[in-house]
Amino acid sequence: MTTELKKHPRVDVADALRGFAVLAIILLHSIEHFNFYSFPPTDGQSAWLNFTDKAIWDGLFFAFGGKAYAIFALLFGFSFFIQHDNQRLRGNDFRARFCWRLILLFIIGNINAAFFTGEILVLYALVGFVLVLTCRLSDRTVISLAAICVLQPIAIYNIIRALIQPDFEPATINWMQHWQAANDVQTNGDFWTTVKVNLWSGQLFSLGWAWDHGRVFQTAALFMTGMLIGRRGLFGKANLTLWGRVLAIALVCFFPLYGISNMMGNYITNSVVLSQLKIIIPSLSNLAFMAVLVSGIIFGFYCTRRVSSALALLIPYGKLSMTNYVTQGIVGSAIFYHWGLYARMGITASVLLGAAIFLVQYAFCRFWVGRHGHGPLEYIWKKATWLWS
Asked: Taking the complete model, does pTM exceed 0.70, yes or no?
């Protein structure tokens, strides 16, 4: 076998999952107006439109809130494994190269952040070093580390301290002041002022929010889990029995977790314990539902011809996931922020706009993948990764 052939083949179901996640993200970001929660008054709206607004908001956040991002993070870890193992098969050590790749991702993320404060690539670039540190550990060790991260160790520590010491107050990040600064410039600022504020206050808000809501540990856990999925080849059709177990366990876990997350405020009086449980329980609930979505999509992709054909349509969109994700933020900010069109749309109109953006992006993806091996940003990221050999 030649050196060029020593590589893992592209996994279609991973691209379908990636496309599904980015589609869900654009719909969520559209109804949020890309972190700019400014909506027209609803007093004069029809009862029917008020109903659709609420149904769309509640339905999309129930189905995708905290789950689409989690799928995206899971696949980031999976992609790392593919790249790392492809180089291992050639006798190369990919770890230093991946560190450089994360620096490049940090730069790309900040370009995106100049437009959209809620972007996640900067967080991925920072947390991604956990993959470099764990990629040569045994499966058992990685599973243990991922489990610790899933359980939110800082939150657990804070709960124990609060139970022992009633006046204990955990350290928090004052990200609200940075959110307010970003919101003010989204409401009133010109383009360059918006870029300046987004790159400082917008990123401090985004990273502070991620820390206070358990996203840092959750992201690390998902990265490691995705790497393990790659190691064991679990996205293959031969592992449907395992995914059936995942689906069953996730369903059993999700409903009590979701119920507890919505009712625990009625029973827990210690404010610190409650605030920390509001990090742990919803995080676990979201991960359980994410597992339902992932396992369900895998079953649909391999077991049902019609569902498989429908999911396969998302493969081109998934192959250009970074290009699609970044351009969504640029287009969305140009539509909703003050420097752009400053559009005032209700939730129903906003989700239709998100669907329209998706369709335009999808048409471009279908055109592009027929002519190129990588998306535009994906190609730039790859070429920059290998600037030296």
From this structure: yes
